[in-house]
Inverse folding.
DNA sequence: GGGTAATCTAGAACACGTTCCAGCGTGACA
DNA sequence: TGTCACGCTGGAACGTGTTCTAGATTACCC
């Protein structure tokens, strides 16, 4: 897969880093209130105290902005999960439990979740590097939860991919009101059976 | 789940049915050329020979229009699959084969596929009834491919859901250039293992 | 401290999805 | 045939994502 022409991000000054954080924080805040459509670029810029053009310099589109927000949030979940790993008999149980925890985390701010996930699935090729990064974090979350002694087998990696697909798609159906949390749990548990298969 | 207030679609006259088909055909044509963003409501209306307001009377948003297009296309695949069912040893193989065929069908018009899938995943709650319909067709496609003698078991239905999630999400990753066809095939085959599990 | 290139600001401008409106057909019913 | 209700038309108008420009500020190097 081709990597888009990304000139290896020049290091940001302190002020710039602060601006970036302000923007991300504002985006998350607006999203928490009204979801995807409440994140309006002009308002993000105003609230973050930055010109519209600057906002676009940091995040080339609304989708980029929200995907970056998702990276941020997932990172938090990952840190938290590493501090308190799920306890369970087998890898499948631990993974399902970990993902359900993450799910409940998202559930606490459903509008924010909606905004981030809409952005994630709406992303076109120009955002694929960033979306890939999100996918990588999710994969790491799952692998962590498996708590393996040895490196994962080919079959386990294949199973992780399917679990990731299921996680992602189940999230979407839940957000659009087409599946209950209970159903999501069942779907995740079903997918996780792949981990303990021969 | 609440069904949105849909006054049970009054029957369309012949002219109206023709308009609807013209609109859908135009949408598919524009999408085939340039994907999601090439489907511009003004252009659809002009090309289909209807006023913009009329277009919106038939399809309340661009997403509705493209989801309806997807329903249409899926229906075609389903008819075709029923005429030429996949031959394979076990249900899992047949399902994987059927889905890969559908995949290749979409691959033939990648821009159209992109437009439809972007719409599908971007859809919010106001489109959930239509999206659900797409999901139902996909489910039927899979169940058909299983070629069961008896009604499916609870486990099989759970597996079908995960396969559907995988199908859907794999499609998205392929469209955004983050997974190859070969990878999609592997993912589908992995998910289909759930069908032949004890 | 001075010069210079990069970055930031304010705001106008543009594109496209969506809404709205006034008036014209058209088909159903008396 | 008259009339009434409904759908359709053409087009203006609005909102929000995105782009662009001219000038102010900042960061960096000598």
């Amino acid at each position: 897969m081709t990597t888009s022409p990304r000139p290896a991000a020049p290091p940001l000054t302190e002020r710039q880093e602060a601006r970036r954080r302000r923007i991300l924080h504002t985006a998350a805040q607006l999203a928490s209130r009204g979801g995807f459509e409440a994140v309006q670029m002009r308002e993000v810029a105003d609230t973050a105290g930055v010109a519209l053009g600057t906002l676009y310099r940091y995040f080339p589109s609304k989708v980029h902005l929200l995907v970056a927000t998702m990276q941020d949030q997932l990172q938090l979940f990952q840190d938290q999960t590493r501090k308190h790993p799920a306890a369970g008999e087998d890898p499948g149980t631990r993974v399902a439990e970990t993902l359900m925890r993450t799910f409940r985390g998202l559930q606490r701010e459903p509008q924010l979740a909606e905004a981030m996930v809409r952005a994630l699935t709406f992303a076109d090729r120009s955002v694929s590097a960033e979306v890939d990064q999100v996918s990588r974090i999710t994969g790491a979350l799952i692998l962590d939860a498996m708590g393996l002694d040895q490196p994962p087998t080919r079959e386990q990696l294949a199973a992780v991919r399917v679990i990731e697909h299921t996680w992602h798609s189940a999230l979407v159906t839940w957000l659009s009101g087409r599946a209950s949390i209970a159903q999501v749990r069942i779907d995740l548990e079903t997918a996780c059976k792949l981990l303990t298969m021969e």
